[in-house]
Write a structure and sequence with these properties.
Layout (H helix, E strand, L loop, with lengths): L3 H10 L4 H13 L3 H14 L4 H13 L3 H17 L3 H14 L1
C-alpha cells in the first residue's frame, strides 16, 4: 500500500476520489491515528454515501477511541447504506457488530 504522503499527492489531483479518501483513512487507522482516520472516513462517506464498509471502518475507529455512542450511530448509518446499495455482505457484517454493541 502506498504511504499516506503518496496517497495525499494522488488526492490533490482527484480530491473527490472516494477510494483515495478511504485508503488514506485506512492508513491513519492502521497507524493508530483514529481521529485523523475518522476525518477521512467522513470525507469518503460524503463522496460515496452508500459504501457500507466505510461506515464499518469508521465505527471501528470510533470504538478504538472509546466513542461507543458515535460508533453505534456509524454502524446504523452503515446498515442503511448497505441496504441502499443492496450489499448483503456489508449489511451482515455491520449488523453483527451492531448486535454485539446493543
Amino acid at each position: 500500500m502506498p504511504s499516506v504522503d503518496q496517497l495525499q499527492k494522488l488526492l490533490a489531483a482527484s480530491p473527490a476520489d472516494a477510494f483515495l479518501l478511504y485508503a488514506i483513512a485506512q492508513e491513519y487507522a492502521k497507524s493508530g491515528d483514529h481521529v485523523k482516520a475518522i476525518e477521512f472516513y467522513d470525507r469518503a462517506i460524503a463522496v460515496a454515501p452508500d459504501d457500507g464498509y466505510t461506515y464499518f471502518h469508521k465505527a471501528r475507529s470510533l470504538g478504538a477511541i472509546g466513542r461507543t455512542e458515535a460508533q453505534v450511530g456509524a454502524l446504523k448509518a452503515g446498515v442503511n447504506a448497505a441496504k441502499r446499495s443492496s450489499d448483503a455482505k456489508a449489511l451482515g457484517e455491520l449488523q453483527a457488530v451492531l448486535d454485539e454493541l446493543e
